[in-house]
Structure prediction request, 1205 residues.
Amino acid sequence: MFCKPAFAASTALALLFAAPAFAEGRPAALIISQSGLGDQSYNDLAYAGFERALASTGIEGRTVESKEVVAQADEILRRASDAGFGLILDLEFAHGEPIAAVAKDYPDINYVILNQVVPGDNIASVVFREEEGSYLAGVLAAQMTTLPGVEGINEQPILGVIGGTKSAGIDKFIVGFIEGAMSVNPDIDVKVGYSNNFADPAVGMQMANAMYDDGADIVYHIAGGTGIGVIEAAKERGAFAIGVDTDQDGLAPGHVLTSMVKRGDVAVERIVADYAGDKFPKGQTISLGLAEDGVGLSPMEHTKDIIPADVMAKVDAARAGILDGSIKVWDVLSQGAPDYLK
Amino acid sequence: MSEMKQADAARGPRLGGQGLSKSFGPLMANDRIDFVARRGTIHAIVGGNGAGKSTLMNILQGLLTPDAGTVLVNGAPVAFRSPNDAIRAGIGMVHQEFTLIPGLTLLENLILGAEPRRGLGAIDRQAAEARAAALAELAGVRIDWSLTEEDAPVHMRQAVEILRLIYRGADVLILDEPTAVLAPPQIRELLALMRNLREKGNTILFISHKLDEVLAVADEVTVLRSGRVVVSRPAEGLDKAELARLMTGEPVEAPTAKPALPGAAVLELDRIGAGGEGAVAFQDFSLTLRAGEIVGIAGVAGNGQDEIVGLVSGMMPAARGAIRLAGQDITRHSTRERRALGLAYLSPDRKKEGLCLDASIADNLIASHQHKPRFAAQGFLKPRAIADFAAERVAAFEIKCASPRQPVRALSGGNQQKVAMARELYDNPRVLLACQPTRGVDIRGIAAIHEEILGFRDSGGAVLLISEELEELVQLSDRIVTIYSGRITGEFPRGGAGMERIGRTMLGEVAA
Amino acid sequence: MKSLQAALTILFPIAIVLLIGAAALLAAGHDPVAVYADLMTEAFGGTRRIAASLSAATPLIFTGLAAAVAFRVGVFTVGAEGSLYVGALMAAWLGFTLTGLNGWLLAPLCLLAGTVAGTLWMLPPGLMKARLGIDEIVTTLMLNFIAIGLTTWLVNGPLLAPGAANSSTPQVVETARLTRLMPPSTLTTGFLIALALLFAYAFWQRRRVGGYETLIGGLAPRFAGASGIDMPGLMLRMLLLSGAIAGLGGALQVLGPIGRFVAGFSTGYGFTGIAVAILARGNPFGILIGAVLFGGLSTAGATIQLFSDVPIEIVNILQGLIMIFAVADFGLRGWFARRAGRQAANGGATP
Prediction:
C-alpha cells in the first residue's frame, strides 16, 4: 500500500505507542501554526477546542508544534499519515498545497485545513464568515462614536480600522466593519490603514495614535501582535479599540469596546465530534458565521455599563437580520473588494 | 620603627640575584648573574636584544625558576614558585603590553580585585577615590580617574599600571621598556614620576636600552651582554659612549665579509615623506641602495625605522617623494607588486608578521610565492612541487624539524627565522629589507643568518639592514647610515668609524 | 584522519549535551533513554526519516558553509540569515512571475537570482569592512533585521499572494520546483547541490591558491599582508562568497520544500549555521555532520510529538545546549593557544 516494507518497523513502533487509542477510533493530530502555542490567540483557541473534543469523544490525540512547520510541511503531514492517525487538523496557513498533495496519497485519512478552501475528497475546509461579526462591531462602533457623555468619545463620526496586510483575507473583516458602520450612519468616516506586519506592537501603536489624532475614537484592529499596540494606544489615550480573534477585552479593561471573536475552538471541536460520530464532512467546505456561533462579539465584560440599551438593541437587530437573511454582508472573497476599498 | 632603622633600611639591599643562571637548550640566557638593587634607588638593567634581560625579569617575577643561583629579597635567599610569591614579597612588574581592562574606568582598574569594602560587601567608592587621590599625590601625577581605559592617554594608563602595583602593596617596581610607547614630553613626565616614587622609598628596576633615559634617572646600572653581567656599578661617572661600549662589546669584523662590489642602484628613496602619525616627523628622506652591498640603518628605536620599513614594503603609503625599485617607480605599488619586482622583506615581528605560526613550514615557505608557476597553475596548487620545494629549503637552510608539515610554532626561534629567510631569499630577489634579523635568535642561529645575508650580498643582492644591535650592523654593513628623528645624521663606510662615533650620531650629533 | 578528528570534535560536546539533557528529562519526569531512542527513530529510523532529516539539514549546510568561508579569513559575519532571506525572496519572485518560461530555464534562473541577491546583500558590509574597517558583526547583524523586515513588508504588500491571509508570495510554478530525490520526501536535488558545494569547498581549501591565501589570511592577517596578499580585498571577496552561498541556500529552500516565500520561513538557519561552522571548525565534513545533526534534531523534534508527550521545548533545549558547547569549546581552544603563546614568549622554549 502506501507503507513500503522498509517503514514497517517504524510504523509498528508508532502503532505500539498509540495502541490504546485505536480501541475506539484512530487518533487525531493537531498541527499548530508557525506562531506556536502560547500565542493567546488562534493556536491557543484551537488547541483548547481540540482538548475539549478529545475529552468528550474519548478519541486519542496528539499535538505537533515545530518552528520548522512551514519548511517541513510535507514531512510532518506524511509522518502523521503513516503513523496511523485518522484525522489530521492543520492550523498552518502555508500548508494549503502540501495538504492537498499528501491527502491524495492517503485516501482513508481525513484532513482539515482552516481559513482556506482546499479541494480534495478527504479534506474538509473550514472558513469563517468574519464579515458578519465585523458587521456587528461596525454597528456598535458607529453608534458609540458620537454618543455624548462617554469619556474618550468625541462628537465626530470618525472610526478607524487597521489591517495587518492588504489582502482579501483581511479586507473581509474591514469591509464587514465598514458596512455595519455605514448601516448606522451612511456619512461615517472610517479610516483604513495597513501595518504590513503582524508582529510589531510599536507600529500598531503609532498607526492607532495617528488615527486618534485625526479624530477617530474607536479603532478596530485585524493585525495579530501588531494589534496589541493598537489596544495599548487606546489605553494610553483613554480612547477605544476593538479586538479580534479572541476575547481581548481584558487586555485593557474599559478601553476595548468589544472583540470580534473567531471561534476556532468551536470549529475544531465540531469537526472532531463529527469524526468521532463517523460524520466527517469529507470534501466539504464548512462555513462558520453568526448562525453557527463561529464568529460573534465578545460578552463586553468591561464595557457593557457604558453601552446604552438602545445601542445594544440595534446590534441585536442587525444580528437577527443577518440570521434571517434580510441583511447580506459583503464578502470580499467571493465578491471582490467594494469600490470604496479599491 | 625607629628613624635610625629606617635610615639603615633605606640603604639596604632590597632585591638582587646571586649566580642566577638559566639556559634554554644550548642557549645560556642568564649566566651567573649577580646584582643588587638597593632600597630607595633606581637600578637600570641595560643590554641589547638577547642580552638576557627578559629571562632575568621572569626569574625575579617567579615566572621562571633559575637552573642555578638564587634570588635575594632584603638580602636573604628566596625561591619563588609562582608570580604570587613575588607579589607577596612586594615585587610587581609593568609589562610593555598593558593589562588595564577596557570599558572600566581608571579608578575601577586601580581597585580591581582588591576593592575597599563597606559593611555588607558593597564597594566603598569614597574610600577608593580617596586612596586613588592619595596615590596620585604621592607619585606627583595628575590622573583623571573617571576616564575609561580607552579614553585615557597612554602615559596616564601607564601611570595607573604603576600605581596599581603600589596600591597592591608593592614597593619594588620592575618597569620593562616603559618609555617605548611614549612621546618625548611624556617620557620626561614618566622619569619625574619614577624619581618621585624613589623619594618615597620605592625601589625601581628600570629595563631599557635608551641610554639617555638610563643616565638621567638611574642610581646604579647593571649591563648585560650575552647573558652575562658586564658590569654593575653606580651610574655616576658613566657617559653614553662608555655605556654603549659596555652594551655592545668591542665590534668584531665578521671574518666572512669579503669586500663589497657595489653595482647599479636598485633601490632609491627619493625625498620620501610619511603621513605625520608617528612620533617623529619623517620627511625628505633620501637613500640609495646598490646591488651587492649591505646598507645598515643605525638608530635608536622610534627614529624612523618603522617609516622606512613601511614605505619600502608598501604597507605605509608615501605622502611625498618617490621610491624606485630597479629603475621603476613603485611609490604607488602594492606590497604584492613590489615583491613581484624583486623585493623581499624580513619582518621584525616574526611571530605576527614574519610567519604564520599555526601554518605548516611548507605553507610558510611558499608565502608570497604561491602564484608562481612552480607552485600553482591556473590557480590550482601543485602539492607535490610544494612538498619537494619545502624539503629542499629545509635541507638547504638546515632547518631543524620533524617534517615540513609541522606547524612553524613548534620550531625554536632561530629555526623559525631560518624558515622566514629561506622564503625571502627564494627566487633571486633584488633587494632584501631585513629588520632585526636575529632578534630572539640564539648565537648559533645568528651566525647562520648572518652568513645567509652575506652570501646574498655576495651573489649580487642588495640588503637594507635595520637592527638595534650596533654590533650586528658593524659586522655586516658595507655602509652604515645613522638616523635620528627621521633624518640621516651620518654615513660611514665599513670600518670607517668606531662604535663611539656611530653611537654619537645615533643620538643626534650630526657627523661632519 | 582529518575527518575522524572533525567527527570527534563534534561528537564530544554532543555527548555532554546528552548527559545534561538526560538530567533535564529526568527532572521533568520523562525516561531519557526512551526519549533519546524515540528521537533517534524519528531522525534516522528508516530511509524516509533519514530523508526528512537530510532535507531539514540542507539549508543548514548552506548557512554553515556560508559562515565557514567567511570565518576562514577572519571575517565574523552573522549575515547569512539576511542573504538567505533576500535570496529566497528573489527566487520566489522570479518563480511566480516568469510563468511563461520553461522550467529547465526558470529553475537555474531563480537559483542564479537568489545567489546574486545574497551576494549583493553582503556588498555594503563587505565594502565597509574592507575600505573603512567597520566591524562586520554589527553591520551584518543590522542587515539581517533589514532583510527580514524588508522581505516581510514585501510579502505583506506588493508581493502578497492574492487571497492569502498570511504573509507569503504565490506559489512558484510547478515546473521550476526541484526534483524530489525520494518522493514523497521533500529531499530534493538541493541536497545534492549542497553536497557538491561541500566537496568543492574541501577541494578549494587544499588545492586552490585562494584556499591557501584565506588560510594564511585567517591565521595571521599581518603576515598575509606583508606577504603581498590583499587582505581587505580577500575579506570582501569571502564575505561576498558567504552571501552567495546563503542566498543560494534560500533560493533552494523556496524551489524545494516550501514552494513559495513565506515570511519567517527561516527559523534562524543563518544562526544555526554559525553554530554548525564553529562546531565543525570549518571542516567541510564536519559541516555536513553538524547540519545533519541539527536537521535530524529538528525533524525528530516535530514528529516525536506524535508518539510521546515530550514537549518541543526539550528539543529546543538540546539544540541550544549543543550550540553553547560548540562555542564554549571554541573558547577553550583559544585559551590553550594563548597559553602556549605565553609559554613560548616567557621561556623561548617551545611547548
Q: What stands out?
A: The domain at 5-128+265-288 of chain A is CATH 3.40.50.2300 (Rossmann fold). The longest strand of chain A covers residues 256-262. The CA atoms of residues 138 and 150 of chain A lie 18 Å apart.
